[in-house]
């Protein structure tokens, strides 16, 4: 079987996850890596024993190679430029989340993916937890009746990153771009990605900007908390909340309310960095009536030993090999980005805003 040749753009923290996942596959060759920091891509490849792979500082040089696909693992602000360059150079793309910094960028990325006919997949690994698929089946399989209200989000009591994540110029947004996009993907994926129509939101940064809570408070210029009321097509309301830090243990369970039943779900894991939808599903409970009685039924969690991060990279390689569409299509994630954009716009003016998307996308 021919080896799939890939390159990795950005050689930081998450790039190592992509590298390990590619290395775990027999039929993949990591041909190159690029990082704007001189020497970083070389060190990244050498530490993994990839002495024959080529290192670049400029990702456009990497894109001149014969490659089947690239992983884009740069800070959020570089997702747009590197993705457009990769697609225009004829490469299929696995892009780290969030999709982009602005909605305008996301729209153009989808357009270029369509124009070039090349896959653009966005890396939301929680989708590879079989329990996420189970929830989608429950929600879309009609068990709940008509779903009219969804509450999703997650909160860390204290779990604020630093570095590139807390600067608007690099990350575009804070908790929203880091973990909020996962919550949105979790709910919207379960619902079949209905189109968002309006958003009314607030954001704050009382913790990140306070030296008592964050060692890099003077650099911190993004939101550490956000809450939004989002109208989706099909008469569904999505109540969303996300927190990097708060004086509370949890923002509560997520829930899907339907006319026939309700589904309550919680994320897996515990500790200061848990409580958000960036990993796996913890518990699932169905609330329904049986013979006129209020009943609730725990849905057994599907036990598995999958590494969901590896699964997402594997699925990208499978889609390349089988010439299949993007496993997590940018056309869907465009709606995720549109909501984040709406939240930031609404919060800035303290009013509900419309979400306008090009009608052809
Ligand atoms: N899916 C996940 O679980 C997960 C986890 C963490 C981060 N992420 C995402 O991955 C991305 C990177 O995060 P990270 O934690 O690895 O950051 P990082 O800062 O550790 O690494 C980013 C690297 O990209 C390099 N870089 C910046 N601009 C570049 C460019 N134009 N060309 C080539 N290299 C460039 C930087 O020098 C740095 O080495 C972010 O978008 C983040 O949201 C995803």
TrEMBL record:
SUPFAM superfamilies with a match to the protein in the record: Glyceraldehyde-3-phosphate dehydrogenase-like, C-terminal domain, NAD(P)-binding Rossmann-fold domains
Domain Gfo/Idh/MocA-like oxidoreductase N-terminal, chain residue ranges per copy: 4-124
GFO/IDH/MocA-like oxidoreductase domain mapped to chain residues: 134-253
Keywords: Oxidoreductase
PANTHER family on file: BCDNA.GH03377
Protein name per the record: Gfo/Idh/MocA family protein
Origin organism lineage: Bacteria, Bacillati, Bacillota, Bacilli, Bacillales
């Amino acid at each position: 079987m021919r080896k799939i040749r890939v390159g990795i753009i950005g050689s930081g923290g998450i790039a190592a996850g992509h590298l390990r996942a590619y290395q775990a596959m027999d039929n993949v060759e990591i041909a190159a890596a690029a990082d704007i920091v001189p020497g970083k891509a070389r060190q990244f490849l050498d530490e993994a024993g990839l002495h024959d792979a080529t290192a670049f500082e400029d990702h456009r040089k990497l894109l001149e190679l014969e490659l089947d696909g690239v992983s884009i693992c740069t800070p959020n602000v570089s997702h747009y430029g590197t993705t457009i360059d990769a697609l225009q150079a004829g490469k299929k793309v696995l892009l780290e989340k969030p999709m982009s910094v602005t909605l305008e960028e996301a729209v153009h990325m989808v357009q270029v993916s369509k124009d070039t006919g090349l896959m653009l997949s966005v890396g939301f690994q929680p989708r590879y937890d079989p329990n996420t698929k189970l929830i989608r089946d429950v929600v879309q399989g009609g068990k709940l009746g008509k779903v009219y209200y969804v509450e999703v989000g997650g909160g860390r009591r204290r779990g604020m990153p630093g570095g590139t994540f807390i600067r608007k110029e690099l990350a575009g947004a804070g908790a929203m771009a880091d973990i909020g996009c996962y919550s949105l993907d979790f709910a919207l994926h379960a619902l079949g990605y209905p189109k968002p129509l309006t958003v009314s939101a607030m954001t704050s940064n009382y913790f990140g900007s306070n030296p008592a809570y964050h060692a890099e408070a003077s650099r911190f210029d993004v939101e550490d908390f956000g809450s939004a009321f989002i109208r989706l097509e099909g008469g569904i309301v999505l109540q969303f909340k996300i927190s990097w830090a708060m004086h509370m243990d949890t923002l509560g369970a997520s829930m899907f309310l339907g006319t026939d039943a309700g589904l309550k779900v919680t994320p897996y894991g515990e500790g200061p960095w848990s409580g958000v939808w960036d990993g796996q599903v913890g518990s699932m409970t169905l609330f329904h009536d049986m013979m006129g009685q209020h009943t609730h039924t725990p849905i057994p969690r599907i036990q598995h030993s999958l590494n969901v991060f590896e699964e997402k990279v594997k699925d990208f390689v499978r889609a390349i090999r089988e010439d299949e569409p993007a496993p997590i299509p940018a056309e869907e994630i465009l709606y995720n980005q549109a909501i984040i954009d709406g939240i930031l716009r609404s919060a800035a003016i303290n009013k509900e805003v419309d979400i306008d998307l090009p009608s052809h996308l």
